[in-house]
Amino acid sequence: MLPFTIEKVTSVDAAIAAASSGRRLTAGGTTLIDLMRDEVEQPQQLVDINALPLSDIRIDRSDLVIGALARMAEVAAHPDVQRLHPLIAESLIEGASPQLRNMASIGGNLLQRVRCPYFRMLDAACNKRNPGSGCAARDGLNAGHAVLGTSDHCVATHPSDVAVALVALDATMRVKGPKGERTFPVEELFRLPGATPHLEHTLLPGELIVEVRVPGGPDSRRARYLKVRDRASYEFALVSAAAALDVADGVIRGARLAVGGVGTRPWRLRAVEAALIGKVPDRQVFQAAARSALEGARPLSGNHYKLELLPRTIVRAFEMTGGIA
């Protein structure tokens, strides 16, 4: 790890000023410090933002509001989260080890960088780390890489579990920066790689995530997160699915679905959702709808198995919601 300085700020405005000047903000540090050890990231100045008043977890009318500095463990254990949004609690528990959940913030989790091994190998070609150098994963070891949203320049999957749940639930986020505040869907935070995979999110220079807001709804309590991985303990998803159903009088009135482990960003599958509306929920209906999940998929040499695993995961996630008539 290269030498660096660190300072502490106690106000949002001070954090924005620090970020605007090029200094790196850090909270839990569970991704950044790891990358600094590998010299993938080499910031010279860090700014500790843990003292900012951004860690509240509350219910505002029917919405769940989560401060950007709330820890993963705190959110997962919060009684209102478990009662009203079990999907979020489940995705957080599945997303990291207990030690990491105690440190990692919600804002940091959403902004964490990819876990592609070539990104962390300084002698490998990686357009995220070194724009224009190439993508070693395309012709390398790519069993864990994306099949949706890829480009010739990058095939890395987005690593966050809770981001998948938040996208499925139409969560929004409030950010504050030098030009004021703005609010937008969490889904719009994440960029597709295209020809510029080093540009991973849509935050403007100096902007800071303030809070995440999750709307309540009839499907929020009938929702589950299913994560398929190589081992049961701490591991990133091969395929994951955040599924929610609104069933009344034996008919599906609403459906939500986002998947992880297969896309270069959390991947909302609106065609699958639309195919379920008005149907009586059963395994055959879920299977038929899940076929459209593969539209636009571009498998690599090592990850063809995801084309079969993805629909199976979707079907099982919807079954787990308890929506079978």
From TrEMBL:
InterPro entries according to UniProt: CO_DH_flav_C, CO_DH_flav_C_dom_sf, Diverse_Substr_Oxidored, FAD-bd_PCMH, FAD-bd_PCMH-like_sf, FAD-bd_PCMH_sub1, FAD-bd_PCMH_sub2, Mopterin_DH_FAD-bd
Annotated FAD-binding PCMH-type domain residues: 1-219
Q: Which UniProt keywords apply?
A: FAD, Flavoprotein
Q: Which Pfam families match?
A: CO_deh_flav_C, FAD_binding_5
Q: Which GO terms describe its molecular function?
A: FAD binding; oxidoreductase activity
Q: Which residues form the signal peptide?
A: none
- Segments spanning the bilayer are none
Could you tell me what this protein is called?
Answer: Xanthine dehydrogenase family protein subunit M
- Organism, by scientific name, is Bradyrhizobium frederickii
